[in-house]
C-alpha cells in the first residue's frame, strides 16, 4: 500500500506525482479540487516520500499498489490525476482496473516508451550519494550542482532530503537505488490491454517534448475517447509553471464528468 493523505468529501480523486517527487508536489491542484467539492487523496509513489522502499518500479507493480490503497480506503470508484511518471502509473491502473476508474487526467506524459535517457546527471549524482551519503543538506546540494544540475532542479530534488517522522537525522526519503535499477522500466510503455473507454484528458505543456504528435497513435489505441489540451508557454512542470490554468482545466474536467453524474 502507498502512503497517502485524505482531505475533503465528495467524489474521490487520486493524485500521483512524478519521478523524484512526493505527494506534496500536487498540493496546489489538490487544494483547487477540494474547493470544488472533491475528496482528494495524494499518494507517494513507491520508493518515494513515506511509501514503502525497495519496491519494484515496473508500471504494473506500481499500479497494483494503487489498487491496494484504493481497497484499503474502501472506495468503490476513483478518478485519477497523474503527472509524468504518476501519469504513466495512472494510465496503467485505468487499463488494468477500468471498472474502478471514473475519469482520468494525464499531465504531460505519453503511454509510449521513451528511448532516450533524460536524467543522466541526476542518476550520476544519486549514485555518488549512495556510495558516500551526504551528512547534511549543503553536502547533498553540492553533489547535485557538481553534476551540472541547475539550482531550481536541485531545490526540487532536495525536497526529498528531510527527516523521517520516526527519526531525528535528515536523509533521502527516496530509494534512488531502486529508481536507478528500474529506470528503463519507468521509461517503458504503458502495458497494452483492452482500451479504457472512460473520459480521459491529456494536458500538455506547449514547450515540452514529453507528449508530441508522434505519441498520438499510442494514446488513441489505449484511450479512444481521450481529449487533449495544451497550456501555452509552459514546459513539463505545467502544474507549477501555470498553476491557475492547469487547476482550472482539472477542476472543469472533473466537475463535468463527476459532479454532474452525481446530481
Automatic annotation (TrEMBL):
SUPFAM superfamilies: alpha/beta-Hydrolases (SSF53474)
An annotated Gene Ontology molecular function: hydrolase activity
Superkingdom assignment: Bacteria
Keywords: Hydrolase
InterPro entries, per the entry: AB_hydrolase_1, AB_hydrolase_fold, Epox_hydrolase-like
The AB hydrolase-1 domain, residue ranges: 11-242
Protein's name according to its UniProt entry: Alpha/beta fold hydrolase
Native organism: Ferrimonas aestuarii
Amino acid at each position: 500500500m502507498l502512503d497517502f493523505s485524505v482531505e475533503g468529501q465528495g467524489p474521490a480523486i487520486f493524485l500521483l506525482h512524478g519521478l523524484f517527487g512526493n505527494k506534496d508536489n500536487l498540493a496546489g491542484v489538490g487544494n483547487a479540487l477540494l474547493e470544488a467539492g472533491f475528496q482528494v487523496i495524494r499518494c507517494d509513489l513507491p520508493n518515494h516520500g513515506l511509501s514503502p522502499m525497495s519496491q519494484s518500479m515496473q508500471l504494473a507493480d506500481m499500479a497494483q499498489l494503487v489498487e491496494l490503497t484504493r481497497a484499503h480506503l474502501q472506495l468503490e470508484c476513483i478518478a485519477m490525476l497523474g503527472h509524468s511518471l504518476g501519469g504513466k502509473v495512472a494510465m496503467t491502473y485505468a487499463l488494468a482496473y477500468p471498472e474502478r476508474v471514473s475519469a482520468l487526467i494525464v499531465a504531460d506524459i505519453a503511454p509510449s516508451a521513451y528511448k532516450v535517457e533524460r536524467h543522466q546527471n541526476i542518476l550520476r549524482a544519486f549514485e555518488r550519494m549512495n556510495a558516500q551519503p551526504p551528512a547534511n543538506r549543503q553536502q547533498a546540494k553540492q553533489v547535485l550542482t557538481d553534476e551540472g544540475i541547475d539550482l531550481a532542479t536541485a531545490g526540487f530534488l532536495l525536497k526529498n532530503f528531510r527527516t523521517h517522522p520516526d527519526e531525528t537525522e535528515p536523509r533521502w526519503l527516496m530509494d534512488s537505488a531502486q529508481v536507478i535499477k528500474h529506470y528503463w522500466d519507468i521509461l517503458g510503455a504503458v502495458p497494452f490491454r483492452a482500451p479504457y473507454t472512460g473520459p480521459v484528458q491529456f494536458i500538455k505543456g506547449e514547450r515540452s517534448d514529453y507528449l508530441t504528435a508522434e505519441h498520438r497513435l499510442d494514446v488513441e489505441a489505449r484511450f479512444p475517447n481521450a481529449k487533449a489540451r495544451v497550456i501555452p508557454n509552459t514546459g513539463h512542470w505545467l502544474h507549477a509553471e501555470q498553476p491557475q490554468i492547469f487547476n482550472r482545466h482539472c477542476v472543469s474536467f472533473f466537475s463535468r464528468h463527476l459532479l454532474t453524474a452525481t446530481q
